[in-house]
Design goal:
By secondary structure, the chain is of the alpha+beta class. The chain is 40% helix and 16% strand. The structure holds 2-acetamido-2-deoxy-beta-D-glucopyranose. One of its GO terms (molecular function) is asparagine synthase (glutamine-hydrolyzing) activity.
C-alpha cells in the first residue's frame, strides 16, 4: 500500500505550509516506507508515501502524463494495467508503474474512466490545464480514503484520518465506489453493479462458473515484483486463497522471481485452533509455512498503537485487528511486502452465523448486499490498516469486482442454509471447490465450519481483553458513559476502554462520526434478533457469543 495526502485551495502557500504538508504526509509513512514525493503548484499539494510493489526502481509518485499537465497521487494496485496500456498506445509512459494509466486514461476520457480500472485504489488527480481536480475510491473501499475541509476553504484528501484530522474543521470517510469532482464540488457514485439495487437475482448456481471467477481473481493478484505470501488461518476462505494461489504460482508473473513454493503465515496464542488448522492446510498444500505466536499481554500492550493505526473504536474490529497487526510486523521482518487475505467471503455468501435464521431468500440476499456495502467500515478497514501499519500490503481476491458480480447474481436460494439438503453456510463456495479428481483441499477442511477470526487465535484472547478493560474502567465510569460520550455511547467496559484510547488520538467530533455505531453498528445484531428473538441474549458484538448458539442453531434448524 501507499499513503496519499492532497490539499487544494490553501490560502497560505508559504514555505511553512509546504513544511506542514510534508509533516502531515509523514504521518502516513508506515504505509509507504520506500520513498516520498510532494508536488506543489500554486495552492495545490499532492503528497505520496510509496510502498514499491510494481516497478520498484522507477515508479515513484506523484505520477504525470507526457507534458506533466496532469498529476496524480495513487494508493493502489491496478491489476488490468497492461490491457489498459494496450488501449492507450498513442500515449508515452514514463514508468512501469501500474498506476500511471490513471493519468493517461484521464487525458483520454476525462472524468469518466474510473469504472475501467480493475483493482483497489484511492487516488487524487490534478488537471493543471483548467485547474480542476478529482478524487476517487475503489468499488468496495478496500483502500482507505478520507475527505476534509479547512476553515480557509481548502479541500483535503488523505489515506488515513491522522493526516488531516488536526488541520480540517470537518472531515469524513470518502464513500467507496464514488468520485469527487471539483467541477461541482460533490461526490457521485461511479460503481453501479447489478447487485446494488438489492433486487433478488435469479441466475442458477453453476459451481464451475463460480470457481473460475475466483481462480481468476486470485491469479490476477499474483502481479508483483516483490516477495509475497498468503495469510492462512486454516478457515475455509483463507485456505481456498492459499490452495488456488499455490496451484497457479507456476503460471504467474511472480514465479520466475520467487520460486514455486508459496509462503503462508498464521498467528495465534500457543496451541490456538487457527495454528492447528493452518498447519494442516499448509502441510496438505506443501507451502512454506510460518507460525507466529503472541501472548495476551503482548496483544494488550499493542492496543494503543492498534487503535491509532486502524482509527476505529469498533470492538470486534479491534479484537481482530490486534493479532493481524502483530503478525504483519513479523511478516514484514521476513522481507515480505504483500499478502493475499480472505476478507469478504462471509459478507458475499452469508457466512455469519445469524444467516442460519434468515426467514427467506429475499431477506438473505438483502442482508448480504448490506454487509458488502458496509465492508469499508469493518473488515476492509481492518485488513488494510493492520497490515499497512507495517508497510505490508493486503490483497483481497473475494472482493474482485467480477467475482462479486458472479457471486451476487446467483439465486440466493442456493446460499440459504439447508440442513436437510446438507447445505451448511457458504455451501455454494465449498461445493464449487469440491473436486474429487484434483482436490483443492481435504473434504473435512472444505466443509469445516466457521471459527470467528478473533476467537480462532485462541480462546483466552477475548477473555483477556475483557479482564484487562474491566480493571481499567470503573462501574461509575460506565454508569456515566452516556454523559461523557453522548454519541455512540459505549455499552461495555471493553468498548469504553477502546473509546477512551480513540478519543486521545482523535478528539474531534468528526472523527467519532467516521466510526459506525449506535443504530448502524447494532444493525447486524438487530437483524439477528429480528430473525430469531433468542439472539437478544447474545448481544456481544463479535461472532463469539454466537458460537455459543452455534450448536443450538443446528438443533433448531433440524
Ligand atoms: C477540465 O478538463 C477536463 C478534461 O478535458 C474535463 O473533463 C473537466 O471537466 C474540465 N474541468 C473543468 C472545471 O472545466
Amino acid at each position: 500500500m501507499c499513503g496519499i495526502l492532497a490539499v487544494f485551495g490553501c490560502v497560505d502557500c508559504s514555505q511553512a505550509k509546504r513544511a506542514r504538508i510534508l509533516e502531515l504526509s509523514s504521518r502516513l509513512r508506515h504505509r509507504g516506507p520506500d520513498w516520498s514525493g510532494l508536488h506543489s503548484e500554486e495552492d495545490c499539494y499532492l503528497a505520496h508515501q510509496r510502498l514499491a510493489i510494481v516497478d520498484p526502481a522507477s515508479g515513484d509518485q506523484p505520477l504525470y502524463n507526457e507534458d506533466k499537465s496532469i498529476i496524480v497521487t495513487v494508493n493502489g494496485e491496478i491489476y488490468n494495467h497492461k490491457e489498459l496500456r494496450e488501449q492507450l498506445k498513442s500515449h508515452k509512459f514514463n514508468t512501469g508503474s501500474d498506476c500511471e494509466v490513471i493519468a493517461h486514461l484521464y487525458e483520454e476520457h476525462g472524468e469518466d474512466f474510473v469504472h475501467m480500472l480493475d483493482g483497489m485504489f484511492s487516488f487524487v488527480l490534478l488537471d493543471t490545464r483548467n485547474k480542476s481536480y478529482i478524487a476517487a475510491r475503489d468499488a468496495i473501499g478496500i483502500t482507505p480514503l478520507y475527505i476534509g475541509w479547512g476553515l480557509d476553504g481548502s479541500v483535503w484528501f488523505a489515506s488515513e484520518m491522522k493526516a488531516l484530522s488536526d488541520d480540517c474543521e470537518q472531515f469524513m470517510s470518502f464513500l467507496p465506489g464514488h468520485i469527487y469532482s471539483s467541477k461541482n464540488g460533490g461526490l457521485r457514485r461511479w460503481y453501479n453493479p447489478p447487485w446494488w439495487s438489492e433486487l433478488v437475482p435469479s441466475t442458477p448456481y453453476d459451481p464451475l462458473v463460480l470457481r473460475n471467477a475466483f481462480e481468476k481473481a486470485v491469479i490476477k493478484r499474483l502481479m508483483t515484483d516483490v516477495p509475497f505470501g498468503v495469510l492462512l488461518s486454516g478457515g475455509l476462505d483463507s485456505s481456498l486463497v492459499a490452495a488456488v494461489a499455490s496451484r497457479h504460482l507456476v503460471d504467474s508473473e511472480a514465479y520466475c522471481q520467487w520460486g514455486s513454493q508459496l509462503h503462508t503465515f498464521c498467528i495465534g496464542l500457543k496451541g490456538s485452533p487457527d495454528l492447528v488448522a493452518a498447519r494442516e492446510v499448509a502441510d496438505y498444500l506443501g507451502t512454506r509455512h510460518h507460525e507466529f505466536y503472541f501472548t495476551v499481554q503482548e496483544g494488550i500492550d499493542a492496543l494503543e498503537e492498534v487503535i491509532y493505526h486502524i482509527e476505529t473504536y469498533d470492538v470486534t474490529t479491534i479484537r481482530a485487528s490486534t493479532p493481524m497487526f502483530l503478525m504483519s510486523r513479523k511478516i514484514k521482518s521476513l522481507g515480505v511486502k504483500m499478502v493475499l487475505s480472505g476478507e469478504g467471503s462471509d459478507e458475499i455468501f452469508g457466512g455469519y452465523l445469524y444467516f442460519h435464521k434468515a426467514p427467506n431468500k429475499e431477506e438473505f440476499h438483502e442482508e448480504t448486499c448490506r454487509k458488502i456495502k458496509a465492508l469499508h467500515l469493518y473488515d476492509c478497514l481492518r485488513a488494510n490498516k493492520s497490515t499497512s501499519a507495517w508497510g505490508l500490503e493486503a490483497r483481497v481476491p473475494f472482493l474482485d469486482k467480477e467475482f462479486i458480480n458472479v457471486a451476487m447474481s446467483i439465486d440466493p436460494k442456493w446460499k440459504m442454509i439447508d440442513r436437510d439438503n446438507g447445505r451448511i453456510e457458504k455451501w455454494v463456495l465449498r461445493n464449487a471447490f469440491d473436486d474429487d479428481e484434483k482436490p483443492y483441499l481435504p473434504k473435512h477442511i472444505l466443509y469445516r465450519q466457521k471459527e470467528q477470526f478473533s476467537d480462532g487465535v485462541g480462546y483466552s484472547w477475548i477473555d483477556g481483553l475483557r479482564d484487562h478493560a474491566n480493571k481499567q474502567v470503573t462501574d461509575s465510569m460506565l454508569a456515566n458513559a452516556n454523559f461523557v460520550y453522548p454519541e455512540n455511547t459505549p455499552a461495555t467496559k471493553e468498548a469504553y476502554y477502546y473509546r477512551k484510547i480513540f478519543e486521545k488520538f482523535f478528539p474531534k467530533n468528526a472523527a467519532r462520526l467516521t466510526v459506525p455505531g449506535g443504530p448502524s453498528v447494532a444493525c447486524s445484531t438487530a437483524k439477528a434478533v429480528e430473525w430469531d428473538a433468542s439472539w437478544s441474549k447474545n448481544l456481544d458484538p463479535s461472532g463469539r457469543a454466537a458460537l455459543g448458539v452455534h450448536a443450538a442453531a443446528y438443533e433448531d434448524a433440524k
